[in-house]
Structure formats: structure tokens, C-alpha cells
Amino acid sequence: MNIFYHIGRYTQMLGQMFSKPEKFSVYWSRLMDEIVQLGIKSIGIVILMSAFMGMVIVIQTATAIDSPLIPAYTVGFTTKQSILLEFSPTIISLILAGKVGSNIASELGSMRVTEQIDALEIMGVNSRNFLITPKILGAVIIFPLVIVFSMAFAFIGGWFACVSTELVTVDRYLYGIEIFHDNDMMYLSYALSKTAVFAFIMTSISAYQGYYVKGGSLEVGKASTRAVVYSSVLILLFNYLITQLVLI
Amino acid sequence: MIEVKNIDKSFGDVQILHDINFKFEEGKTNLIIGQSGSGKSVLTKCIVGLHEPDNGEILYHGRNLPTMRRKEKKSIRTEIGMLFQAGALFDSLTVEENVMFPLTMFTKMSKKEMRARAKFCLDRVAILDKNKLYPAEISGGMQKRVAIARAIVMKPKYLFCDEPNSGLDPKTSILIDSLIKELTEEYKMTTVVITHDMNSVLEIGDNIMFIYKGKNHWTGDKNSILTTQNKEVTDFVYSSKFMKMYREKII
Question: Are residues B72 and B3 part of one domain?
């Protein structure tokens, strides 16, 4: 189907999502549920991946530096820059796009094929507003926090690699993390802002794919796959655009 | 009362409904019958506002649904209860929470009042003891009963049932049919039932529209449907062996 048709319908979905809720208290509790489902329940996997990635970055950087002219603290500095600028906000967002995106698309897709969305509409509930808005808002609020956890545990992972391999001393590693900190706050806000953009992309694209499913369970599966693929591609595209806009 | 006038509906180049006219009477069970693919579900979705008809009027006590403003449409929808073919209960909510859901969204009742109303409705459909279970933990027939309880919890003026007996055994089907009939009379609702089950037609068919190839082909009631000479209707009614035997017996 025409790409403009999908862009139009996606825009229309976003427009209809942001209307006045039928009952604020119900929406508040739905928002809290989504924060727990999408964010808090992802923290475990994020911590695990971040810690291992931190370890690997330290080992790879330390073994790649051959020249005695390059100071040992470069390992800490490189680890910080990689984690802060790219690894935590982008790679973790891509991983979350897989986990959260397929979850949202299959949940909404199943609700569509079992007529639960029709049931909401017939009751007079704005189903886009009720089902999709809390997911998007929840992800935009909680994912930056998840990324802060990711950064912290990646640094801890790096520290563990220093201790266990003795490729770099912990002192030099920590010194490398601390130096040249003038831009750190700017980098942190850049990382968190782009995480919020990625959160919006992955939840809205996945919701779109799930909400408009037609057919049966096979189509729900296909919609989940599309949700992950399109979200990932768009995250990469926006990563490039935001980086070019902010860092150049 | 709901009245549909000159309803046309197409999807792309395929015209599904052709100039449908019918009055769904208040306090009666109005049946839309016909073969699979004849347009029954599309017509119902047009009537409840899930599809927009290409032409025609859908009058809820004189108020035309397609031309209503969003606010007015919303208020009409709170007067509608619908029983879906597969129940359409929310998987993440318990039976009781499912029934309480419309109350939570549209009333200012306290939790205690909502519970009492949900309890009353669940009791009315004889499934009160399952109130703490999730939809996946109860049988298809029970899910239908819960869906009926959810449909009537707001005391609707209009009740729509999309093939309420599909997937149910004959005994449970009769139970669901009787429940629909009793509730229609009790709440004086305008009830619209889509079915192709002849048992339902004979049990609850107060006012029947037979749709054939997207057109209102025949109208009548549960008595006249057995004696009509309309070929398409008789083909439909006497398609089963049991009904053929019945016809031979009465002839």
C-alpha cells in the first residue's frame, strides 16, 4: 500500500490519541501500569547487557592501544564517550525496540483481532487515547531513566573488567572517566533527549502496526515483526539526524 | 427504536449493502439473518457506528447517527450494549473488572456501588461465582454470559448481539437465547441479534429481516418464516436435515 497512506493514517492516529481522557484517574493508573510494564520490567535485561558491554568495551579498547605514548586513562575516557554518546542511548534503545515494540504490536494486534478494540469503541471509549497514549507517554518518561541505569552499570562493568583483567588500573580507568568533563552534561542531555525521541518512535510505530492489524494471529505475528524492523530503522535514521543536528 | 433508511455500503469496488430499510422495534428481539457473507455483520457495524455507511440514515429514536457530532455520538454509545461473537472480554481484567469497566469509565459511582451493580448483573446471568477468574479461565458459554453482563451493566437502551450462539452447544445456546429475550423484555431494550442459527430464529425471532446478497430480501417473524413461499428464505430455513424433516411432517 502507498507509503503516503500509512503516513497519513499514522498522523491521524497520533492526532486522535491526544484528546481529553474520559476519566483522568483511569488514565493515570494506566500510565503507571505502562511505566512498570515497559520500563521497570526492562531494567533487569538492560543492566545485564550494559554491564557486559562495559566490560567488553574496556577490554577491546585496552588491547587495541599498543603505543606507549597513549596514556592508560584513554581506556576510561573512550569507554565513557562510547557509553554516553552511543552505546546506552542507541544500542539499548534498539534492544528495547525489539522487546517493547513486539510486545506493544502483539498486544494491540490481539486486541484488534479479538474485537476488544471494537468493544471499547462501542462503549464510547476513544481506544487510541485509552490504549496507545499511556504507552507512548510511559516510555518517553521512563526510558531516559532506564538509560541512566544502563550508563551506570556499563561503567561498573568496565570497572569490573579493569579489576579482573588488570589491563588498566582502576585508578587510571576512573581518571579517564572523570577528565575532560566540560561537555559531559551536554552529552548526557543529548543522550537522554535522543532516548526520549527513540522511545516515541518505537512505541508509536509499534502501536500503529498493532492497532491496524487485519486478519488473524498470523497477521499479528507479521505486525510484530514489522514493528521491530521499522522502529529499528527509524531509530537509526533519527540517531544520525539528531547527532548531525546537535554535535556538529 | 432504531430505523435504518436506504443504507448502502461498499468496500472499494465491492458493494456489500444495497438500499437497506428496516425498523428495529423497542422491547423486541429483532433478528438479522442470512447466509455467511450476505452483509449482516457489515450492516450491524454500520448501525453501531464502527463503519460509516456510504448513503442512508441510521435513526436512534429519530437521531441520525452518521451526522451526529462526536459528543452526541459518544453519548449514544453509552446507551449501547454489545455482545461480540467471541465475547471480546478484556484478557487482562477479571470477570468482575470486565463487567465494572463501563461503570469505571463513564459513571461517578463509588467502587462499592460499582461492585454491587456488577454483582447484580453477574448474578442475573448466573455466573456470580466466577467473578474473580480471568476470561481465559472460564468456558466459551460462560464468557458469553459475562459479555452479556457487561453489555447490560449500564442499563442500555439498545443491545446488539453478534452471533451469540456461535461455538456453543445446543443447551447453552438456548440458555443464552432465553437470557437475551428475558433481558430485552425486562429492560425494554431494542435488541438486535445477528444469527444464522435456526433454533435462535424460532426461539426469539420477534421481528426478522432476511438479508440476501446485501439486500433486505424478506421481513417477518418466527411464525411467518416457517410458512413463507419466498424461495431464498425457505432454502435458508430448511437447509438442515432436521428442518426438512419438520417441513415434511407439517405438510
Answer: yes
